[in-house]
Design goal:
The complex is a heterodimer. Chain A is an alpha+beta fold. In chain A, 40% of the residues lie in helices and 13% in strands. Chain A has eleven helices and eight strands. The radius of gyration of chain A is 23 Å and the shape is globular. Helices cover 50% and strands 14% of the residues of chain B. Chain B has twelve helices and nine strands. In chain B, strands 1, 2, 3, 4, 5, 6 and 7 form a seven-stranded mixed beta sheet that branches. A two-stranded antiparallel sheet of chain B has the order 8-9. In chain B, β8 and β9 form a beta hairpin. The longest helix of chain B has 40 residues. Classes of the chains: A alpha+beta, B alpha+beta. The interface between A and B is large, with 52 and 50 residues. The complex binds flavin-adenine dinucleotide (FAD). Flavin-adenine dinucleotide binds next to β1, β3 and α11 of chain A.
Amino acid sequence: MTAAAVTAAQLLLRTRELLAAHPPATTAREDFLRARFDAGLAWVHYPEGLGGLGAPRTLQAVVDAELEAAAAPDNDPRRIGIGLGMAAPTILAYGTEEQKRRFLRPLWIGEEVWCQLFSEPGAGSDLAALGTRAVRAADGDGDWVVDGQKVWTSSAHTARWAILIARTDPALPKHQGITYFLCDMHAPGVEVRPLRQITGEAEFNEVFLTGVKIPDAHRLGEVGQGWAVARTTLMNERVSIGGMRIPREGGMIAPVAAAWRGRPELRTHSLHQRLLELWVEAEVARLTGERLRQQLAAGAPGPEGSGMKLAFARLNQEISGLEVELLGEEGLLYEDWTLRRPEIVDFTGRDAGYRYLRAKGNSIEGGTSEILLNIVAERVLGLPAEPRDDKDLAWKDLAR
Amino acid sequence: MSAPNPPSAAPLDLLYSEAEEELRTAVRSLLASRCDAAAVLARIEGGAPHDPVLWRVLAADIGAAGLLVPEKLGGQGASHREAAVVLEELGRAAAPVPYLTSAVPATEILLGCDGADCADLLRELAAGRRVCAPALPLTLAPGAPLPAPVRDTGAGPGGGTGPGGGHGGGTGTRTLSGSVTSVADAAGADVLLVLADTGLYAVQADSPGVSRTPLVALDLTRPLATVTLDGAAGTRLADPATARAAIAGALLSGAGLLASEQLGLAEWCLAQTVAHLRTRHQFNRPLGSFQALKHRLARLWLDVASARAAARAAADALATGAPDAPLTVAVAQAYCSGVAVKAAEECVQLHGGIGMTWEHPAHLYLKRAKADSLALGTAGHHRGLVADFAELPSP
Ligand SMILES: Cc1cc2nc3c(=O)[nH]c(=O)nc-3n(C[C@H](O)[C@H](O)[C@H](O)COP(=O)(O)OP(=O)(O)OC[C@H]3O[C@@H](n4cnc5c(N)ncnc54)[C@H](O)[C@@H]3O)c2cc1C
């Protein structure tokens, strides 16, 4: 099957063949996912042999709808989101043939969870300032030794692999001497410590890297080209956030609306006004996301993508804040402060207090709202960059 | 919990088709040549904002006035989607043309009432030969009670079937008396559609007993008048029930498509402001390089992008007659009014002193945006409708 030949009808046929050969009711979850990957129906726009068929990205919807109707098992994007949304497209774009074959299949199936070792205590928004060092090992076999500290690393406690950026030449300006690696989280010298967060649980972690050996075969892209590779990851991060299709009154607005309908005693006029404003905004955000998807499907990706993350961050925070207020006395309570290390990121489950606190991260994780506003202003509206003096200085000479 | 739920969303096409983009190009280039800001200001100062030549080209040559009219009645047989694109461009130009009165609600009212007189009038409107204004206050909103300040005061000059005798669409002529305030585009209209206690009537605007008293309007580009009928002759188009249903439908379409005018207006304001801040220097830097301003504009961009989705949703829901169209329209109106006003206010503010001058067109947009936020229901009114449709009752 060549790329040009793949049609919706053919995909439907293939999907039905998959379902016939592996009836979801009697097939083990991972077996079904493996068969789906091997049939090229995992991400249809990926190449053949790597879980896809080189089909247009939009046709994935055809496959998904058919599988959903058949109640087929899915890989849980909440558990493997970093792998799916960020590691995979970067490996696809920059990986060697061997790396693609080694990593994409277990990643997609969820046998191997990924995390992202980017942020450091001294490098968040200014990610290119990172200081974790990677040097060639003394034994001369071309492998690398990594030392440094990463922070706020989601899922590091469940991850088998990490995408990692490290500095390989401190004498160069900060965007230059960076190299991108695929890091084995089980390698000696990788230490993951839970980092308790605002919600009481530890969804993210601190990661200490001490003399961690990374074979040169696990370098992604050229030495010193890590920033370009990382930009691919970050771009995909923002596309994957907010890219989910939601029904009317889906997402954070659902529990508030349900409480409003089910518990008339909680209603006040001022809350009503705010609820309606937010309901309208949530519906408009849903439509904006829908329009973005239709543009992507029509092959004309619009700049709305970067806006969606901004919109959802603000909405989630306002809606969850309203919900706590609406609940009155109950809003004073919190479900559970025990330190837990959850396997999945659960934005809408749990109680209102949790939602309120967790939503605070929506405008920080994956690029803060301030940084995204800069991106919209400069890349979408074409406004000039602010004058800056850090771009040409050697990394080692930067203020810190 | 078995609480009721809002109607689930109909699938919508939120993009623009190629034909729609072609229509946009035609309208935009016409407006660029005939309706630049200086020309609009000059006409306003001359006391006659409407440009009949522009209207004729837009309505007849481009065919914009007949988009909602079926082909068999001389129209384009297009839909609300295309009309929305025209309104985006008219909003972008703050164009003083009676599109949102004649080509949308008046046309929809006539489409909602059968009869030979309606068909004849629709033909005239679609061809751009005549302009028609519904004699209703511009603020009248979908879902609000319809006022009926006009009385049927007896048989008209030509006699004919009386209100008790004929059925909807009867061709009787009656005399009408009463007065309606804040009627948009009445001054430039040839025909007024008048709701009286006995039905809907077409009244020739220049006939005896009709007076149109211009009001000094906040929005210079959409003139308002008080229409007073004093024994004026009206041709009966529909019985009261038909008339009311037709008007309700027309108000829904009007409100839904107003969102597209608001979108176009907001887009102009954003684009002008971005262009200005890129070139104006203060403190030895382009103003647009200051983050405080960049963030404001980036937020406004997001609001405008969201307004586009909301306005397109309303146009598409109206075009396809989606069952949840009233909710989608209410959402669009509840959202787009505020975005247009905010865009115009930011435009004035970020242009500094220039933005406060009469010469700079920003004020035309601010006035249009603010008036639009009252037209066809305020955001608050539409949020109330959302509460009804989505079953989120007030305390
Ligand atoms: C829940 C959560 C999960 C995360 N998961 C991961 C992960 O898995 N892997 C990973 O690598 N990282 C992760 N992060 C880290 C995240 O990417 C960073 O926190 C983020 O990029 C911001 O960096 P910072 O925290 O150092 O804030 P800082 O950069 O110190 O920013 C502090 C404040 O200053 C503002 N600011 C900074 N620079 C500018 C500027 N130029 N203009 C205007 N304002 C500015 C910021 O917007 C922010 O409000 C996670 C964070 C959270 C909250």
